[in-house]
Amino acid sequence: MTESLAVSAHQLTKTYGSGENVVFALRDVSLSIPSGRFVAIMGPSGSGKSTLMHCLAGLDNPSSGEVYIEGQNITAMQDQQLTELRRRRVGFVFQAFNLVATLNARQNIELPFLLDGKKPDASRIASITTMLGLQERLSHKPHELSGGQQQRVAIARALATDPAVLFADEPTGNLDTNSGRSVLGFLRTCADEGQTIIMVTHDPAAATYADEVLVMRDGSLVDTITSPTVQSVTGALTEVGV
């Protein structure tokens, strides 16, 4: 594996059931994502986009095939080794924010370090929270923050450990239009500064913040859109039945 690849997959297949009842969530998917690339994954419901992201992130195991993060074969790792890699080299942002309600924003951002038994990187956290405009909100608990602010805290937490790749699953799904654009703008800025991002979204407008869009149908990658526009993305999704 070349070091310039943040994530790659080789002939990923994911099935459920067996025999006549087998269901293919992924069918022989291969891809390579260079470091610093912002990639969106799109497709109709049931196309396999979330399954693909979960396998790439080490949250789910493929039935066959291999996934590499920074050249390391994560599909060959033992559970403890995989847990440590996810904690140190992978960031996650979800639609539901997944903040700890009893912790304030700063404590939520520092949580990955505490779980790993390490001292928080104060200078990196200060830089990220400044970029995200969170300096005045760090002492607030999640219920005292707007949805957009909560998602920015989740992004700061995901970026705090300087991950090789940030996975974002419908990160603007619970946000209003303005908050969503703000969050996507921050992700775009991160990508411009070298952060690899893989985002699952159903929103063509959100996909335009990415460098390229991977389109899925029936568990397979069927199209790649570079320099996406709303029109090009909408047209590709129409082709796959969205």
From TrEMBL:
One Gene Ontology cellular component: membrane protein complex
Residue ranges annotated for the ABC transporter domain, each copy included: 7-240
MF annotations from Gene Ontology: ATP binding; ATP hydrolysis activity; transmembrane transporter activity
InterPro entries for the chain: AAA+_ATPase, ABC_transporter-like_ATP-bd, ABC_transporter-like_CS, ABC_transpr_LolD-like, MacB-like_ATP-bd, P-loop_NTPase
Pfam families (UniProt xref): ABC_tran (PF00005)
Alphabetically ordered keywords of this record: ATP-binding, Nucleotide-binding, Transport
Domain of life: Bacteria
Protein name, per record: Putative ABC transport system ATP-binding protein
